[in-house]
Amino acid sequence: xxxxxxxxxxxxxxxxxxxxxxxxxxxxxxxxxxxxxxxxxxxxxxxxxxxxxxxxxxxxxxxxxxxxxxxxxxxxxxxxxxxxxxxxxxxxxxxxxxxxxxxxxxxxxxxxxxxxxxxxxxxxxxxxxxxxxxxxxxxxxxxxxxxxxxxxxxxxxxxxxxxxxxxxxxxxxxxxxxxxxxxxxxxxxxxxxxxxxxxxxxxxxxxxxxxxxxxxxxxxxxxxxxxxxxxxxxxxxxxxxxxxxxxxxxxxxxxxxxxxxxx
Length: 263
Prior knowledge:
By secondary structure, this protein is α+β, with helices and mostly antiparallel strands.
């Protein structure tokens, strides 16, 4: 359920998930401008066009929670506010994601997104860093990727660090670019997703043997051949992503910074 507070501009809006309306009211966050200008937010990632921050709060029940806030600094082609739609699309096809709190946009195009922390969940890349073998997560990540693509959606940011695990559950975050796969050249977008994931497995030092096991599992669930031209195109795309990532890192070293003390 959603409360919607439209502004005088068709492009501007302020939307709050109904369960979080009392919390937002208690915090004094009653309009998009309130969120975008709030001085209480603790920024941990600061990029030229947007930032990521946290806000610790208390529910009316007395329960302490942590909110994660993304804010545009200027008008962008794809505002961070679009992630709300992506999260709802993931939920629609049965893929867990970060709990959506609110989103909105000003008339000038700057937007924001607020989600609640995924308590107990840890990103899979960090779990691997801490010694967990990738095989513990291989089938779950392959199943989520296949579910996404079988539902004719693509993520466009399907890296290992966007999969969060807790006991037997797993969530997929950073849904800002989740969209329906275009009818034309549809394999292009699926190839990009799979290439991103395999690139990130290499970054996490996951063995070629375990990568191949993931490919076999994904191919079975997504009803694709496990060899052939599709996978050759995936390999080519993964190599391009590696070069592109290296260039981005050189240009903006803080782009992939992690939340201090976070998961």
